[in-house]
Write a structure and sequence with these properties.
This protein is α+β, with helices and mostly antiparallel strands and 298 residues long. The chain folds into 3 domains: 67 residues, Uridine Diphospho-n-acetylenolpyruvylglucosamine Reductase, domain 2, CATH 3.30.43; 124 residues, Uridine Diphospho-n-acetylenolpyruvylglucosamine Reductase, domain 3; 65 residues, Alpha-Beta Complex (Uridine Diphospho-n-acetylenolpyruvylglucosamine Reductase, domain 1). It is 23% helix and 28% strand. Strands 6-7-15-11-12 form a 5-stranded antiparallel beta sheet, sandwiched between helices. Strands 1-2-5-3 form a 4-stranded mixed beta sheet, with no helix packed on it. A 3-stranded antiparallel beta sheet has the order 17-18-19. Helix 2 runs antiparallel to helix 4. It is globular, with a radius of gyration of 19 Å. The two termini are 21 Å apart.
């Protein structure tokens, strides 16, 4: 059998073995990835993927804001896009092209400075465009795919494809597309706007976020999806779970749909707390909350 990647001689990116994922996730938890790759660019990434064993598990990582990696780590290959696949450019007069590693907040600010409006809400998403595309991330009434004109994908043979929204089934915090393809970036269709007004709106949203969310402690953002017609935070608070702890993981006292790492929490602490919140909310309200966070196990 081939090793995880035999084609490493010509790679220009950075390849590490047994890289602790706690260094790369917002919760600051997670064991080692057996292999960790940061490509130099798209061509380097394509070459790397072609050299992988066809059975090798692959995990894509941006800012690590929506991941709970187990304490045992990940027995496959992690591809990190943040800090490398980070091109952001104007397309025509009303579009922006952003690679998957570009932070969402940067997209919001850059579009505003270009005199374009429609993605101010992205400033409230603590991840990259790749993650936003994969889960149809949203905030403050906006959703990523409402602005997508087309996307660029790559498969494990290193083949690139440009696809349209019609190629995907898009819903609330979920996107289903052609199997075996990952997002490399997107063109966003925007509208002419006023830079000063857009930047003011961004400042307003950031202030709302600062007031409502536990910004100073490690968290993944919202842990659970909002159920139809309700809010996960309301249900969690109604169940009396604000401040509930498992080890060093705690349901935030500021926003009940956040779980924070108060010190040296383990992934197991957080996982147990997620399960406890689910069971208590189901008991008190009859609603089974669905995690928004992606849990990664060995």
């Amino acid at each position: 059998m081939k090793s995880a990647n035999e084609n490493t001689v010509d790679l220009r990116g950075e390849l590490r073995r047994d890289e602790p994922l706690a260094r790369h996730t917002n919760w600051r938890v997670g064991g080692p990835a057996r292999q960790f790759f940061r490509p130099a660019d798209t061509a380097d990434l394509a070459a790397f993927l072609r050299g992988l064993d066809p059975t090798e598990p692959v995990l894509w990582l941006g800012l690590g804001s929506n991941l709970l990696v187990s304490d045992e780590g990940f027995s496959g290959t992690v591809v990190q896009t943040q800090g490398c696949l980070n091109t952001l450019e104007l397309v025509g007069e009303r579009g922006v092209r952003a690679e998957s590693g570009v932070p969402c907040a940067r997209v919001a600010r850059s579009a505003a400075r270009l005199g374009l409006t429609g993605v101010e809400f992205l400033v409230g998403i603590p991840g990259t465009m790749g993650g936003a595309l994969a889960m149809n991330a949203g905030a403050y009434g906006g959703e990523t795919w409402n602005r997508v004109g087309c996307v660029l994908t790559i498969d494990r043979r290193g083949e690139l494809r440009e696809r349209l929204p019609k190629d995907f089934r898009i819903g609330y915090r979920r996107v289903q597309g052609p199997p075996g393809e990952w997002f490399l970036g997107a063109e966003l269709a925007l509208e002419p706007g006023d830079t000063a007004a857009s930047l003011a709106r961004i400042r307003e949203l950031l202030e709302r976020r600062r007031r409502a969310q536990p910004i100073g402690l490690p968290s993944c953002g919202s842990v659970f999806r909002n159920p139809p017609g309700d809010h996960a935070a309301r249900l969690i608070e109604a169940a009396g779970l604000k401040g509930l702890r498992m080890g060093n993981a705690q349901v935030s006292e500021k926003h009940a749909n956040f779980i924070v790492n108060t010190g040296a929490a383990s992934a197991q602490d957080i996982s147990r707390l997620i399960e406890r919140v689910q069971s208590e909310v189901a008991r008190t309200s009859g609603v089974r909350l669905t995690p928004e966070v992606h849990q990664v196990k060995l």
